[in-house]
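Exercise 3.2. Students should predict the tertiary structure of the chain below and write it as structure tokens, then compare their answer with the key that follows.

Predict this chain's 3D structure.
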Amino acid sequence: MTEPTAKQIKDEKNYQQWGLTDSEYDLISQKILKRLPNYTETGLYSVMWSEHCSYKNSKKVLRKMPNKSSRVIAGPGEDAGILDIGDDQAVVFKAESHNHPSAVEPYQGAATGVGGIIRDIFSMGAQPIALLNSLKFGPLKDGKTKHLVDEVVAGIGGYGNCIGLPTVGGEVSFEDCYENNPLVNAMCVGLLNKTAFKHGTASGDKNLIVYVGAKTGRDGIHGATFASDEFTDTKNKQRSAVQVGNPFIEKLLMDACVEIIEKHPEWVLGIQDMGAAGLVSSTAEMASKAGSGLVLNLDNVPQRETEMNAYEMMLSESQERMVLCIKPEYKDDVLDFFKDYELDAVVIGQVTTDKQYKIYHQGELVTDIPVDSLTEDVPEYDRPEVEPQRMIDDRDYKFVPEIDSLEETWNNLLKQPNIASKKHFYQTYDSQVKANTLVKPGSDAGVIRIRGTKKAIAMTNDSNSKYVYLNPYVGGQIAVMEAARNIVAAGGEPIGVTDCLNYGNPENPEVYWELDKSVEGISSACEKIDTPVISGNVSLYNEYNDVAIYPSPMIGMVGLIDDIDKVTTSAFKEAGDLIYVVGETADDFNGSELQMQQTGSIKGDLRPLDLTEEKLHQDLIRMAIGQKLIQSCHDLSEGGLAVALSESAFDNSLGFDIKTKLTSAQMFSETQSRFLVSIKESDKDEFEKLIKTDFECLGYVTQEHIFKVTTADETVLMDGKKAANNWKEAISCLMK
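Answer key:
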């Protein structure tokens, strides 16, 4: 194809299709370059100035996040965050969204989301140890959605299983607003010997830039721009923007990068993965962070397609590729090392001191721009905000459920897709490869042991977007605290957070208000429990025909278990154990699964969250687990006490006999800050002395699979086997 001239791009406004506004184009041409950018240069600015790469609409909000603690070794700005866990070891983790690609090509969209997040971890020199995911789809009522779900799950499983990483946790939910804009958020956790940490920088005059990994093709061009655009009936089929993955090359690349950083740290000065915006973002960010310039020669880039121009090579998001900065004297060592792994490794450029970003192709200089103009000169927007009218209208609304039959309501709720067992999906994932998994999917948090120590890492991700929709501030707090309760229930101490912030169009004042307020809520909760946000991702423009998804912040949290003897699961262990609920239960039905089941929609406000009470309950549970007083522990979330009791009983086919002061409706209340625990009867006095307040002894675990429940309103005897079948088979039935 013939490339348009710089004047044609300006006159025909081609830059608008690539995501640049008129004012942004004018800023580039009139103030930064003082000339018209050519075709390749305009392409570079369009991807680097996209929301996906620059966070130009969200930077102001993101600065509110706490990102420091005594454990933080590396925070936002690196490929992934790093936390000190003692003994010269660190945990490395990050989450990324791959929403738009998964809507268009669900298998490859999900698979390459997993591949990209794994590269973020090993680019830090860490050994990836586990994967998690958070998925949101439309209701399971038509073939299109079921196909999407099947393909996304297959893509996640296919990639992770081939690489040999266990998928140990996650969540799946279904709401109308995700029907045409699903959310696919992937999280990876790795381990690092602290000394081996590598920054993503390119520094030192005449040091070399090395390209390693798969060949470059035309897949994923403008992937970053595509991720920063919204879907409509006419604008949602940009398949060329979706990358194609090869997990077998990624496995070689992972093993090679971890080994070269561990065994030959002096060879590698900097390393970064080629993710969104491919070669341009990785190289420009590395140079900009180091205050350097770069000269690149694209003739050396390994290509799998013919006649690619500079624009295509720089913007391609072909997968399984890394950029290294090395000293010239180690060039042969580095190239030979990767050759032994059968990976392409070539020198494609060198570091300069002039802070210019220069690209040559076929002997011609096709780009000559200040490197910081791609990364530091991006305009930052302070968008207008306004509280959504629905929140003002519904502020005083309180949903009052009607329970004609506790048993019927209970069984119906267990069949709801958001509550029912997700085993239909997670059985696709290998959760035990590498044999370090202590707790598999299905409990509150996944747990991976750290070989050679008594320690383990607990990990979870949480996102209840219905709450955030009703009250972004309180909903943001709840997302953090539910994740923390999951970590605590597994025996861990919450130590840090990564996030995926999934929202609609930030130019809509109501959407921007939701983003701002929920981040304030997230920040306040993180500060309360000292879990800094050390990495993450923003995904905006999640809309279809101008209708936004629910505001959907996903919180990925990691916890440290200092002794694997403390590892706790949610399953009741033996008959005769006493059952307690820790935390007071109130009438919290707005935004609940019960409200959704009985009315088909949600409305109303949320009660403020008492962060001090929340932290107290978490601390007390951690102390009780530390003193070996707890047999099982489960946090109370969707579906309330009734669902938590059922899930705790299902695993070992046990039952329970309980009597409570709660009403039948309150069995389904979603009051926060609560745990369901079982203890040995012999530990009763010691446990109650420790907890002191806000607890109720409900009754005991029974051998037979019967749920005997006496509420303030009625007594029911439920068949545990029938309840378990409702819960276990609901999603398989819907997916048929």
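Discussion points: The longest strand covers residues 127-137. Residues 135 and 404 are 33 Å apart (CA to CA).
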